[in-house]
Protein backbone atom coordinates (compact mmCIF):
# COMPACT_ATOMS: atom_id res chain seq x y z
CA UNK A 1 0.00 0.00 0.00
CA UNK A 2 1.24 3.48 -0.86
CA UNK A 3 1.21 5.99 2.00
CA UNK A 4 1.62 9.60 0.98
CA UNK A 5 4.29 11.47 2.93
CA UNK A 6 3.07 15.03 3.56
CA UNK A 7 6.43 16.30 4.84
CA UNK A 8 7.70 17.13 1.37
CA UNK A 9 4.38 18.40 0.03
CA UNK A 10 3.78 21.61 1.93
CA UNK A 11 2.79 23.81 -1.01
CA UNK A 12 -0.99 24.03 -1.50
CA UNK A 13 -2.33 22.51 -4.71
CA UNK A 14 -4.70 24.22 -7.14
CA UNK A 15 -7.44 21.70 -6.42
CA UNK A 16 -10.13 23.30 -8.55
CA UNK A 17 -8.01 22.41 -11.60
CA UNK A 18 -7.95 18.67 -10.79
CA UNK A 19 -10.19 16.71 -13.19
CA UNK A 20 -12.22 13.70 -12.13
CA UNK A 21 -10.49 10.35 -12.41
CA UNK A 22 -13.18 8.21 -14.02
CA UNK A 23 -11.36 4.91 -13.38
CA UNK A 24 -11.11 5.57 -9.64
CA UNK A 25 -14.72 6.66 -9.31
CA UNK A 26 -15.99 3.70 -11.31
CA UNK A 27 -13.87 1.25 -9.33
CA UNK A 28 -15.00 2.75 -6.03
CA UNK A 29 -18.65 2.32 -6.98
CA UNK A 30 -18.27 -1.15 -8.51
CA UNK A 31 -15.97 -2.74 -5.95
CA UNK A 32 -17.87 -1.60 -2.87
CA UNK A 33 -21.47 -2.11 -3.92
CA UNK A 34 -21.73 -5.16 -1.69
CA UNK A 35 -20.62 -3.18 1.38
CA UNK A 36 -23.46 -0.66 1.47
CA UNK A 37 -25.66 -2.38 4.08
CA UNK A 38 -25.41 -1.34 7.73
CA UNK A 39 -25.21 -4.32 10.08
CA UNK A 40 -27.25 -3.89 13.30
CA UNK A 41 -25.28 -6.72 14.93
CA UNK A 42 -22.19 -4.48 14.71
CA UNK A 43 -23.71 -1.04 15.32
CA UNK A 44 -25.66 -1.80 18.49
CA UNK A 45 -23.00 -3.74 20.46
CA UNK A 46 -20.28 -1.27 19.48
CA UNK A 47 -22.28 1.79 20.49
CA UNK A 48 -23.65 0.24 23.69
CA UNK A 49 -20.28 -1.14 24.83
CA UNK A 50 -18.55 2.18 24.16
CA UNK A 51 -21.19 4.14 26.08
CA UNK A 52 -21.31 1.73 29.03
CA UNK A 53 -17.52 1.57 29.32
CA UNK A 54 -17.35 5.36 29.09
CA UNK A 55 -19.91 5.97 31.83
CA UNK A 56 -18.43 3.27 34.09
CA UNK A 57 -14.99 4.84 33.74
CA UNK A 58 -16.46 8.30 34.31
CA UNK A 59 -18.16 7.12 37.51
CA UNK A 60 -14.88 5.55 38.65
CA UNK A 61 -12.99 8.79 38.01
CA UNK A 62 -15.53 10.64 40.13
CA UNK A 63 -15.65 8.19 43.05
CA UNK A 64 -12.05 7.09 43.57
CA UNK A 65 -9.62 8.97 45.81
CA UNK A 66 -6.46 7.76 44.07
CA UNK A 67 -5.28 10.47 41.66
CA UNK A 68 -3.48 8.06 39.26
CA UNK A 69 -6.54 5.79 39.10
CA UNK A 70 -8.82 8.78 38.61
CA UNK A 71 -6.64 10.05 35.74
CA UNK A 72 -6.52 6.63 34.11
CA UNK A 73 -10.29 6.23 34.48
CA UNK A 74 -10.80 9.71 33.04
CA UNK A 75 -8.68 8.82 30.01
CA UNK A 76 -10.66 5.62 29.42
CA UNK A 77 -13.93 7.56 29.82
CA UNK A 78 -12.76 10.19 27.36
CA UNK A 79 -11.78 7.69 24.66
CA UNK A 80 -14.82 5.44 25.13
CA UNK A 81 -17.34 8.30 25.16
CA UNK A 82 -15.57 9.84 22.18
CA UNK A 83 -16.11 6.61 20.28
CA UNK A 84 -19.75 6.47 21.36
CA UNK A 85 -20.25 10.11 20.36
CA UNK A 86 -18.70 9.49 16.93
CA UNK A 87 -21.76 7.46 15.94
CA UNK A 88 -23.48 10.81 15.35
CA UNK A 89 -21.62 10.80 12.04
CA UNK A 90 -23.12 7.45 11.10
CA UNK A 91 -26.63 8.69 11.93
CA UNK A 92 -26.41 11.28 9.17
CA UNK A 93 -25.75 8.62 6.51
CA UNK A 94 -27.84 5.65 7.64
CA UNK A 95 -30.58 4.82 5.16
CA UNK A 96 -34.11 5.18 6.52
CA UNK A 97 -35.26 1.96 8.15
CA UNK A 98 -31.78 0.38 8.14
CA UNK A 99 -31.29 0.47 11.91
CA UNK A 100 -34.68 0.71 13.66
CA UNK A 101 -34.46 2.52 16.98
CA UNK A 102 -30.76 3.33 16.70
CA UNK A 103 -31.26 7.09 16.46
CA UNK A 104 -33.53 7.10 19.50
CA UNK A 105 -31.22 4.82 21.48
CA UNK A 106 -28.11 6.84 20.63
CA UNK A 107 -29.74 10.12 21.61
CA UNK A 108 -31.00 8.77 24.93
CA UNK A 109 -27.72 7.09 25.86
CA UNK A 110 -25.16 9.43 24.32
CA UNK A 111 -26.48 12.51 22.53
CA UNK A 112 -28.50 14.02 25.37
CA UNK A 113 -26.10 13.11 28.24
CA UNK A 114 -23.24 14.68 26.26
CA UNK A 115 -25.42 17.62 25.10
CA UNK A 116 -24.80 16.79 21.43
CA UNK A 117 -28.22 15.54 20.27
CA UNK A 118 -28.23 14.36 16.68
CA UNK A 119 -30.26 17.32 15.36
CA UNK A 120 -27.06 19.38 15.70
CA UNK A 121 -25.48 17.28 12.94
CA UNK A 122 -28.28 15.74 10.89
CA UNK A 123 -29.18 17.92 7.95
CA UNK A 124 -25.86 19.76 8.35
CA UNK A 125 -23.19 17.17 7.60
CA UNK A 126 -24.88 16.03 4.38
CA UNK A 127 -24.38 19.56 3.01
CA UNK A 128 -20.63 19.00 3.43
CA UNK A 129 -20.98 16.09 1.01
CA UNK A 130 -22.97 18.00 -1.60
CA UNK A 131 -21.04 17.99 -4.87
CA UNK A 132 -21.30 21.75 -5.43
CA UNK A 133 -20.97 22.81 -1.77
CA UNK A 134 -17.82 21.06 -0.58
CA UNK A 135 -15.05 23.54 0.15
CA UNK A 136 -17.17 26.57 -0.71
CA UNK A 137 -18.56 29.33 1.48
CA UNK A 138 -21.81 27.31 1.69
CA UNK A 139 -20.09 24.30 3.26
CA UNK A 140 -20.85 24.27 7.01
CA UNK A 141 -17.83 22.07 7.74
CA UNK A 142 -15.08 23.73 5.75
CA UNK A 143 -12.60 26.51 6.39
CA UNK A 144 -9.39 27.01 4.36
CA UNK A 145 -7.34 26.44 7.52
CA UNK A 146 -4.12 25.75 5.60
CA UNK A 147 -4.39 29.19 4.01
CA UNK A 148 -5.21 31.14 7.17
CA UNK A 149 -2.94 32.83 9.71
CA UNK A 150 -0.67 30.70 11.95
CA UNK A 151 -2.61 31.65 15.09
CA UNK A 152 -5.80 30.19 13.60
CA UNK A 153 -4.75 26.59 14.34
CA UNK A 154 -4.18 26.92 18.12
CA UNK A 155 -7.35 29.01 18.32
CA UNK A 156 -9.21 26.21 16.51
CA UNK A 157 -8.19 23.78 19.30
CA UNK A 158 -8.67 26.20 22.22
CA UNK A 159 -12.25 26.91 21.16
CA UNK A 160 -12.97 23.19 21.16
CA UNK A 161 -11.72 22.84 24.74
CA UNK A 162 -14.47 25.25 25.83
CA UNK A 163 -17.23 23.23 24.16
CA UNK A 164 -18.82 21.92 27.41
CA UNK A 165 -19.29 25.48 28.63
CA UNK A 166 -20.75 26.53 25.29
CA UNK A 167 -23.14 23.58 25.23
CA UNK A 168 -24.36 24.33 28.77
CA UNK A 169 -25.02 27.94 27.76
CA UNK A 170 -26.73 26.76 24.57
CA UNK A 171 -29.15 24.35 26.27
CA UNK A 172 -29.47 25.52 29.90
CA UNK A 173 -29.72 29.23 29.12
CA UNK A 174 -30.54 30.00 25.49
CA UNK A 175 -33.14 27.26 25.00
CA UNK A 176 -35.37 28.41 27.93
CA UNK A 177 -34.92 32.08 27.01
CA UNK A 178 -35.85 31.28 23.42
CA UNK A 179 -39.23 30.05 24.58
CA UNK A 180 -40.17 33.61 25.57
CA UNK A 181 -38.05 35.60 23.10
CA UNK A 182 -38.86 34.65 19.48
CA UNK A 183 -36.02 36.78 18.07
CA UNK A 184 -33.52 34.96 20.28
CA UNK A 185 -35.02 31.61 19.34
CA UNK A 186 -34.43 32.39 15.66
CA UNK A 187 -30.85 33.51 16.36
CA UNK A 188 -30.14 30.31 18.28
CA UNK A 189 -31.59 28.17 15.51
CA UNK A 190 -29.60 29.92 12.78
CA UNK A 191 -26.21 30.30 14.50
CA UNK A 192 -26.02 27.93 17.47
CA UNK A 193 -27.82 24.77 16.36
CA UNK A 194 -25.22 23.08 14.19
CA UNK A 195 -21.94 21.27 14.80
CA UNK A 196 -20.19 23.29 12.11
CA UNK A 197 -16.89 25.14 11.83
CA UNK A 198 -17.88 27.74 9.22
CA UNK A 199 -18.92 30.86 11.18
CA UNK A 200 -20.86 32.16 8.19
CA UNK A 201 -23.19 29.15 8.13
CA UNK A 202 -26.85 29.83 8.92
CA UNK A 203 -29.31 27.03 9.58
CA UNK A 204 -32.82 26.90 8.17
CA UNK A 205 -35.88 26.07 10.23
CA UNK A 206 -36.60 22.32 10.45
CA UNK A 207 -39.75 20.86 8.92
CA UNK A 208 -41.95 17.78 9.24
CA UNK A 209 -40.71 14.75 11.15
CA UNK A 210 -37.27 16.25 11.60
CA UNK A 211 -38.80 19.22 13.40
CA UNK A 212 -40.47 16.85 15.88
CA UNK A 213 -37.17 15.06 16.44
CA UNK A 214 -35.41 18.39 16.94
CA UNK A 215 -37.94 19.53 19.56
CA UNK A 216 -37.77 16.47 21.81
CA UNK A 217 -34.00 16.22 21.52
CA UNK A 218 -33.56 19.88 22.40
CA UNK A 219 -35.95 19.53 25.34
CA UNK A 220 -33.99 16.52 26.61
CA UNK A 221 -30.64 18.30 26.28
CA UNK A 222 -32.09 21.38 27.99
CA UNK A 223 -33.30 19.36 30.99
CA UNK A 224 -29.99 17.52 31.25
CA UNK A 225 -27.95 20.75 31.05
CA UNK A 226 -30.06 22.36 33.78
CA UNK A 227 -29.66 19.26 35.96
CA UNK A 228 -25.92 19.35 35.32
CA UNK A 229 -25.39 22.95 36.41
CA UNK A 230 -27.57 22.52 39.51
CA UNK A 231 -25.99 19.20 40.51
CA UNK A 232 -23.29 20.71 42.80
CA UNK A 233 -26.05 21.70 45.22
CA UNK A 234 -26.70 17.98 45.80
CA UNK A 235 -23.54 16.14 44.71
CA UNK A 236 -20.83 18.72 45.27
CA UNK A 237 -18.50 20.08 42.61
CA UNK A 238 -16.36 17.03 41.81
CA UNK A 239 -18.84 15.18 39.56
CA UNK A 240 -19.47 18.28 37.47
CA UNK A 241 -15.77 19.16 37.16
CA UNK A 242 -14.77 15.62 36.20
CA UNK A 243 -17.58 15.44 33.64
CA UNK A 244 -16.49 18.79 32.16
CA UNK A 245 -12.83 17.72 32.00
CA UNK A 246 -13.67 14.43 30.26
CA UNK A 247 -16.04 16.19 27.85
CA UNK A 248 -13.47 18.87 27.07
CA UNK A 249 -10.76 16.28 26.38
CA UNK A 250 -13.11 14.32 24.15
CA UNK A 251 -13.93 17.44 22.15
CA UNK A 252 -10.28 18.44 21.77
CA UNK A 253 -9.44 14.99 20.36
CA UNK A 254 -12.29 15.35 17.90
CA UNK A 255 -11.10 18.82 16.91
CA UNK A 256 -7.61 17.49 16.26
CA UNK A 257 -9.16 14.76 14.14
CA UNK A 258 -11.18 17.39 12.30
CA UNK A 259 -8.00 19.38 11.72
CA UNK A 260 -6.44 16.45 9.85
CA UNK A 261 -9.60 15.15 8.17
CA UNK A 262 -8.84 17.43 5.21
CA UNK A 263 -5.89 19.38 3.87
CA UNK A 264 -8.04 22.57 3.88
CA UNK A 265 -6.41 23.98 0.74
CA UNK A 266 -9.47 25.08 -1.21
CA UNK A 267 -10.21 28.79 -1.52
CA UNK A 268 -13.96 28.56 -2.08
CA UNK A 269 -14.29 27.22 -5.62
CA UNK A 270 -16.42 24.17 -6.45
CA UNK A 271 -14.30 21.04 -6.86
CA UNK A 272 -14.54 17.75 -8.70
CA UNK A 273 -15.13 14.59 -6.68
CA UNK A 274 -11.51 13.56 -7.25
CA UNK A 275 -10.29 16.95 -6.03
CA UNK A 276 -12.48 16.61 -2.95
CA UNK A 277 -10.97 13.18 -2.32
CA UNK A 278 -7.42 14.54 -2.62
CA UNK A 279 -8.28 17.34 -0.21
CA UNK A 280 -9.39 14.66 2.29
CA UNK A 281 -7.40 12.17 4.34
CA UNK A 282 -7.23 8.42 4.98
CA UNK A 283 -5.04 7.19 7.83
CA UNK A 284 -5.21 3.42 7.24
CA UNK A 285 -3.34 0.65 9.06
CA UNK A 286 -0.63 0.18 10.17
CA UNK A 287 -1.00 3.57 11.92
CA UNK A 288 -1.26 2.27 15.52
CA UNK A 289 -3.33 5.00 17.19
CA UNK A 290 -5.69 6.13 14.43
CA UNK A 291 -8.43 3.78 15.65
CA UNK A 292 -8.44 5.78 18.92
CA UNK A 293 -8.37 9.35 17.59
CA UNK A 294 -10.38 8.60 14.43
CA UNK A 295 -12.83 5.87 15.55
CA UNK A 296 -15.96 4.47 13.88
CA UNK A 297 -14.48 4.58 10.39
CA UNK A 298 -13.28 8.19 10.59
CA UNK A 299 -9.74 7.09 9.76
CA UNK A 300 -11.06 6.51 6.21
CA UNK A 301 -12.38 10.03 5.76
CA UNK A 302 -11.21 10.46 2.16
CA UNK A 303 -12.79 7.14 1.17
CA UNK A 304 -15.94 8.22 2.97
CA UNK A 305 -16.12 11.24 0.66
CA UNK A 306 -16.04 8.87 -2.31
CA UNK A 307 -18.60 6.51 -0.79
CA UNK A 308 -20.61 8.31 1.91
CA UNK A 309 -23.27 5.59 2.07
CA UNK A 310 -20.86 2.78 3.03
CA UNK A 311 -21.18 2.04 6.79
CA UNK A 312 -18.15 2.43 9.01
CA UNK A 313 -17.62 -1.28 9.59
CA UNK A 314 -17.12 -1.90 5.85
CA UNK A 315 -14.72 0.94 5.06
CA UNK A 316 -11.60 -1.05 5.93
CA UNK A 317 -12.57 -3.86 3.57
CA UNK A 318 -13.51 -1.39 0.83
CA UNK A 319 -10.18 0.38 1.26
CA UNK A 320 -8.23 -2.88 1.03
CA UNK A 321 -10.00 -3.87 -2.19
CA UNK A 322 -9.40 -0.49 -3.79
CA UNK A 323 -5.72 -0.51 -2.83
CA UNK A 324 -5.34 -4.00 -4.31
CA UNK A 325 -7.23 -3.13 -7.50
CA UNK A 326 -6.08 0.37 -8.41
CA UNK A 327 -2.54 0.85 -9.68
CA UNK A 328 -0.08 3.10 -7.92
CA UNK A 329 -0.69 5.77 -10.55
CA UNK A 330 -4.28 6.13 -9.33
CA UNK A 331 -5.05 9.24 -7.26
CA UNK A 332 -6.59 6.92 -4.69
CA UNK A 333 -3.12 6.15 -3.31
CA UNK A 334 -2.39 9.85 -2.78
CA UNK A 335 -5.17 10.19 -0.20
CA UNK A 336 -3.44 7.90 2.33
CA UNK A 337 -1.26 9.30 5.11
CA UNK A 338 0.86 7.86 7.91
CA UNK A 339 -0.55 9.63 10.98
CA UNK A 340 -1.88 12.72 12.69
CA UNK A 341 1.22 14.71 13.56
CA UNK A 342 2.84 14.84 10.10
CA UNK A 343 -0.49 16.19 8.82
CA UNK A 344 -0.69 18.79 11.60
CA UNK A 345 2.84 19.85 10.69
CA UNK A 346 1.99 20.13 7.00
CA UNK A 347 -1.05 22.33 7.67
CA UNK A 348 0.87 24.43 10.21
CA UNK A 349 3.71 25.04 7.71
CA UNK A 350 1.19 26.03 5.08
CA UNK A 351 -0.24 28.75 7.35
CA UNK A 352 3.24 30.28 7.59
CA UNK A 353 3.60 30.77 3.83
CA UNK A 354 3.23 34.42 2.86
CA UNK A 355 0.47 35.01 0.32
Q: Rg, please?
A: 21 Å
Give the class from helix and strand content and strand pairing. Answer: mainly alpha
Low-confidence stretches: 5-12
Order of helices and strands: HHHHHHHHHHHHHHHHH
The overall pLDDT, averaged over residues, is 92
Helix content: 55-70%
Distance between the termini: 35 Å
What does this structure look like?
This protein has a domain at 6-37 and 261-351. The chain has helices at residues 22-31, 40-63, 67-85, 87-91, 102-111, 125-128, 152-161, 163-180, 182-191, 208-230, 232-235, 238-259, 273-278, 290-293, 301-306, 312-325, 340-351. It is mainly alpha-helical and 355 residues long. It has 17 helices and no strands. GO terms for molecular function: oxidoreductase activity, acting on paired donors, with oxidation of a pair of donors resulting in the reduction of molecular oxygen to two molecules of water. Residues 69-329 form the Fatty acid desaturase domain.
Amino acid sequence: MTVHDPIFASAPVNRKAIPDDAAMLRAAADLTREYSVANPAIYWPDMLASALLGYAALATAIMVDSVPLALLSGLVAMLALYRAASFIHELTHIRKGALPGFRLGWNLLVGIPLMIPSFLYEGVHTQHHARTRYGTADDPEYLPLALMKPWSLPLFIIVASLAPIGLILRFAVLTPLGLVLPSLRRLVREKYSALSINPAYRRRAPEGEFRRQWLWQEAGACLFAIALVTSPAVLGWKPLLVYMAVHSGMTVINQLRTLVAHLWENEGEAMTVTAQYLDSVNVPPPSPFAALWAPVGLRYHALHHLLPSVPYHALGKAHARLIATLGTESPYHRGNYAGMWPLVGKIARSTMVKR
